[in-house]
């Protein structure tokens, strides 16, 4: 999808998002939101391009929503990280020069990090085999990248299928395994702001944290320093694998991770159902004072809403302020907003991330 790139109008766009969030939260007497701006360019750590062929030559292409017949041919993408822009044309030229790399190549995906790593996935409309490996290894060495090849039913990983990110939060460096194709926050610098805000909002606690939708442990790791223990849950198998690696790599010892959907967590904590995946975990031994949620765009389902009402504090990160407001409307009888924030993960679009801390009314 093409994105309008307008650095000169950035402050006006950000002000409009702030006004929109303020209006959405006004019925709940929310305080003024803290606003965390994005860099105006080179902020996006991921990018995906289709290839469009003219006169037999490939070009990177993006498309307006709903129109896959009118490509916008590009050589650089100002919103993408500097590393992606450095790699785009040398990679394409190498694929044009070597038929083993370029034949029936239809898509290129970039995943980069603040720590400087880059993983590139080349997608083909043909089988790839050991001959591709040989050509790809030369390219990976030449460009100093990690490289993966994909074709129908096949994936060829030359070295590893993930990058290692490093994020600075509250004076500490956290290392994260980010897997190809898995969900990661696309704007690394704003993600650091999100993590720092969440830590400040959480404060220092002597009780425990329940985290739903933990993903690869993005918030789990820093938040573990602010609670006695953390019970984190996630449904995606690949995210759980990455989270476990990240917990071990960062030597975090007070987090227990369970693969459960949010609805299953509700059933387990309310005693409606027992799960084999919870064997050996004494839920009654936890003293949860805070619940942290970072749900999908649809927000919290009715069962999870009822669950979170039972906690003194609800720390909520949202990628959809409309469903956030709808959820708060269901919580306002028991909780009030004491902090809120706007995180501009997606400049030049209408999308934004928001954070609120809700505390039980006394």
Question: How would you explain this protein's 3D organization?
Answer:
This protein has 10 helices and 17 strands. It is α/β, with parallel strands linked by helices. It folds into 2 domains: 7-40 and 187-360, Rossmann fold (3-Layer(aba) Sandwich); 46-163, Beta Barrel (OB fold (Dihydrolipoamide Acetyltransferase, E2P)), CATH 2.40.50. The strands form 3 sheets. The chain has an 8-stranded mixed sheet, sandwiched between helices. The mean pLDDT is 94. One of its GO terms (molecular function) is tRNA (uracil(54)-C5)-methyltransferase activity, S-adenosyl methionine-dependent. It comes from Halopseudomonas formosensis. Keywords: Methyltransferase, S-adenosyl-L-methionine, Transferase, tRNA processing.
Summarize the structure.
With 362 residues, this protein is α/β, with parallel strands linked by helices. Helices cover 30% and strands 29% of the residues. It contains 10 helices and 17 strands.
Give me some keywords for this one:
362 residues, alpha/beta, 17 strands, 8-stranded mixed β-sheet, Rossmann fold, 2 domains, 7-stranded mixed β-sheet, globular, OB fold (Dihydrolipoamide Acetyltransferase, E2P), single chain
